[in-house]
Automatic annotation (TrEMBL):
Domain of life of the source: Bacteria
Organism: Dulcicalothrix desertica PCC 7102
Family in the record: Belongs to the CpcE/RpcE/PecE family.
Domain (GUN4-like) ranges: 96-235
TM segment ranges: none
Pfam families, alphabetized: GUN4, GUN4_N
Protein name in the entry: GUN4 domain-containing protein
One GO cellular component term noted in the UniProt record for this chain: outer membrane-bounded periplasmic space
GO molecular function, one term: tetrapyrrole binding
Residue span(s) of domain GUN4 N-terminal ARM-like repeat: 6-88
């Protein structure tokens, strides 16, 4: 295993034990280890940096997203320098077939400002659809059908990685399929409807990880089923 020179390469034995467990552990174990490492101060942050450094050439995982967010939001000066050097645009590759800049969305999700990120998602999707959609600030389902696979996957991956796997269009699609493609059951399951009452925007939505799985992003849900139907049946998920 390689270690960047800006990261300490030796640790007290008890900390090193946590380091080994972080590398080899299951997702659940890694999730539990991260707060323990944070509580150990600089040495713990150094281990998180080393972990992320050695993951930089591999497909991004939910743990990578969690570690990145911890470092991004920390006051540890070395972490800021490290992220700027190796992950200047985050851990999710910001790929676009239309030269859309997804870094504002990445930054909002990194700090878990989910309400602002939801607004930014619609803004970026309207940019993707073209000048007419950007001007009206909402989408036609036919525009969604024409979205490039790459861009839709980038938006989804950003939500997925920065929500510990809880939010994203692919999450909503998985729930929808598990419910036999029943829209009414989906609205209830993801917290968009309670009984006969639609969840009111914005105050009745839950803008943090306490929300039901699939609660976000809203995907233009206030304008009916056709937009989200186009999203959940898009070739991006084939």
């Amino acid at each position: 295993m390689t270690t960047d020179p800006m990261i300490l390469s030796s640790y007290p034995s008890d900390i090193d034990s946590l380091r080994v467990q972080l590398i080899d552990g299951s997702f659940q174990a890694q999730q539990q280890l991260i707060p323990q490492l944070v509580s150990r101060g600089d040495n713990g942050f150094d281990i998180l940096m080393e972990f992320l450094y050695n993951r930089r050439q591999t497909p991004v995982s939910l743990v990578d997203g969690k570690v990145y967010q911890i470092l991004f939001n920390s006051e540890y000066g070395k972490a800021k320098e490290f992220l700027q050097t190796y992950f200047p645009t985050g851990v999710v590759p910001l790929k676009s077939e239309c030269a859309i800049d997804y870094s504002p969305l990445q930054q909002l999700l990194a700090v878990q400002d989910f309400q602002a990120a939801d607004k930014m998602t619609i803004q970026k999707m309207c940019e993707l659809a073209g000048p007419s959609a950007s001007a009206r600030k909402w989408l036609y389902f036919t525009e969604v059908e024409s979205f490039p696979i790459t861009d839709l996957q980038t938006i989804n991956q950003l939500w997925l990685i920065h929500s510990e796997g809880k939010f994203g269009f692919s999450v909503q699609r998985e729930i929808w399929l598990s419910l036999g493609k029943n829209w009414d059951n989906l609205w209830t399951k993801i917290g968009w409807k309670s009984g006969n009452n639609w969840t009111r925007y914005p105050n009745e939505f839950i803008w943090d990880l306490k929300a039901p799985k699939g609660h976000l992003p809203l995907s233009n849900q206030l304008r009916g089923v056709r937009v989200i139907a186009s999203l959940l049946t898009h070739p991006a998920w084939s």
